[in-house]
Amino acid sequence: MPALSVIVPVYNAEAYLRTCVESILDQNWKDLELLLIDDGSTDSSPQICDQFARYDQRVRVIHQTNAGAAAARNHGLDLASGSYITFVDSDDYIDSDMYEKMMSIRLEFQCDLVICDCLKEFDFGAQIYTHTLPGGFYDRSKMKSEYFPQLLMTESIEYPVTISNWLLLVRKDIIQEHHIRYPEGIRFSEDLLFGAEVGYAANSMYYMKGYTPYHYRQNPMSVTHSAYRDKWPMLLDLYQRIKKSFGQKADFDFGPQIDRCLLFFVYLAIGNLGSSGLKSSARKSQIRQILKNSLVHSTLKRIQISKLKISWKLKLITYLYRWKCIPFVELLWWYQNKKI
Description:
Layout: E1 4-10, H1 17-25, E2 32-39, H2 45-55, E3 59-64, H3 69-79, E4 84-87, E5 93-94, H4 98-109, E6 113-116, E7 118-122, E8 125-129, E9 136-138, H5 140-147, E10 168-171, H6 172-177, H7 190-201, E11 205-208, E12 214-217, H8 231-246, H9 255-273, H10 280-291, H11 294-302, H12 312-323, H13 326-339
Parallel strand pairs: 1-2, 1-4, 2-3, 6-11, 7-12
Antiparallel strand pairs: 4-10, 5-12, 6-10, 7-8, 9-11
Helix pairs in contact: 8-9, 9-10, 9-11
C-alpha cells in the first residue's frame, strides 16, 4: 500500500497533461500512486493517460462518462489506497520536492492535514497565492481559536486556506470516517465545502505558509474562468449544503461565516452576469431574482455590512444589493466596463 495517493481529474487536457503527470512521477517522494480519472475526454487525453500507465506501474487510469471534476475526484477517493490523499489539476504542475517536504512535515508533527501555498501563473508572470492565517503547527485547541473563525469564509469575504484542495495533504482515515465527498453536480467552488469539511474533521494541521511548490495555471478555458448563465442555482445549492454541514456544529458557531458564504456567492453570480452575454433586460431580471430570494434577503439584512473588512466600494455595492437598487447596479457595471 503506497503512502500517498495523488488524484488527477482529467478532461480535455492534452495541451498540459504530459507536463502535469511527469511532474508527479518525477517527485523525490517515490512511494505514491497516481490515479488519472479520465472524465470522458474527447481529445487525446485518454490515450496519453494510458501511455503513462504502460510506462509506470504506479499509474492507474480510470475512464468514465463525463460527470464533472467533483464526480471524478470522488471516483478517485473511492479507489485510493494510500494512507494520505492529495490532488492535482490536469493543467497544473508541481515542483519535484513538494511531496517530500509535505510528507516530512506530516511525519515530524504527526498531523492529519498539511497545507502549502502556490504560485498562480499568468502570461505576464507569476504571483504567490497565500492567506492571512499564520503558518506553523495547529493542535485542535489552536485550530478552534485561530483557524475556525475563518474556516469557511474570511471577514474580508475571501476564500479560506483550504480552498485549493490540491495544496492539501490529508490523512485518508479522516475522509473515510467522516464520509467527506465532493458535492457532485456543482461546478463552481465545490472545493470550498470539501476543504472546509476536511479542515473541521482534522485534529491537527500544519500550514507551510510561503512554500509554493504548486504551479496553478490561469487557464482561460477552465470551468473556473468560464461564464455560465446558470451559475446561481449551483451556488445556491452549494450554500444549502454548507448550511446543512456547518449550521449545527456543537463546538463552534459558524453562522456568520455561512452568511458570508452566501454573500460571496451573490458577488460571484451577479458578477458573472456581466460577461454572460445577456441583454440588459434579461440581466436585470436575473439580478432581481437573486436579490429577491428569501435566503439572500434575510442574509443581507442580518450581515453587518459596515463591519465587513472589504473596500468602501464593495460595501456600497453590498448596500445596493440589500436595497435591491437594480438600476444603480447596472450603472456600476456600465462604468466599470467603460473603464476597461
